[in-house]
């Protein structure tokens, strides 16, 4: 696993040997939002100060959290724009009164650890989505509940 870490732009080689993404570091609480069709499930990830929580996910707490309406609208627009039915979105919540910062969307991102710890019914939503013809259930948007 390649993990996120701080990088000194001046130390980068003129040509990188692989595709790379660089973005400013945003401090705050990590949020994993799993989108399944019109259903959204979000958790706050706590228990580490590491920039990238994935290497220590077995020591973390995943707690269901409310999704700001603007984030829900943006996630649904992202899914429509890219023709996705599923996405594991990562955000940072920098704190009260400040909007979540979008980091990425993984169209095949893991969700099991989120479901096991939070009790969110993501697997059931995926199963329901697989059983729903794509011309049904695509128009509405709803937010999943624990």
Number of domains: 1
Q: Which parts are unreliable, with pLDDT below 50 for 5 consecutive residues or more?
A: 138-142
CATH topology: D-amino Acid Aminotransferase, Chain A, domain 1
Q: Compute the average pLDDT.
A: 85
Strand content: 15-25%
Biggest sheet descriptor: 6 strands, mixed
Helix- and strand-based class? alpha+beta
Q: What is the gyration radius calculated from CA atoms?
A: 16 Å
Distance between the termini: 30 Å
Q: Please, what is the CATH homologous superfamily?
A: ATP-grasp fold, B domain
Fraction in helix: 10-25%
The CATH architecture can be given as 2-Layer Sandwich
Main attributes of the structure:
25% strand; globular; 146 residues; six-stranded mixed β-sheet; 3 helices; ATP-grasp domain-containing protein; alpha+beta; D-amino Acid Aminotransferase, Chain A, domain 1
Task: Outline the structure in words.
With 146 residues, the chain is of the alpha+beta class. The chain has a single domain, classed as D-amino Acid Aminotransferase, Chain A, domain 1. It is built from three helices and six strands, in the order E-E-E-H-E-E-H-H-E. Strands 1, 2, 3, 4, 5 and 6 form a six-stranded mixed β-sheet that branches. A hairpin with a 7-residue loop joins strand 4 and strand 5. The longest helix has 14 residues. It is globular. About 3% of the residues have low confidence.
């Amino acid at each position: 696993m390649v993990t996120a870490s701080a990088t000194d732009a001046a130390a980068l080689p003129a040509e990188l040997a692989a595709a790379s993404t660089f973005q400013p570091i945003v401090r705050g609480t990590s949020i994993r939002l799993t989108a399944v069709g019109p259903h959204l499930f979000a958790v706050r990830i706590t228990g580490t100060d590491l920039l990238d929580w994935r290497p220590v996910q077995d020591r973390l707490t995943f707690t269901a959290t409310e999704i700001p309406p603007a984030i829900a609208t943006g996630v649904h627009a992202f899914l429509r724009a890219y023709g996705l039915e599923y996405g594991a979105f990562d955000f940072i919540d920098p704190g009260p009164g400040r909007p979540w910062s979008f980091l990425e969307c993984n169209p095949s991102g893991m969700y099991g650890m989120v479901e096991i710890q939070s009790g969110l019914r993501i697997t059931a939503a995926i199963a329901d989505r697989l059983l729903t013809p794509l011309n049904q259930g695509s128009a509405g948007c709803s937010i999943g509940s624990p």
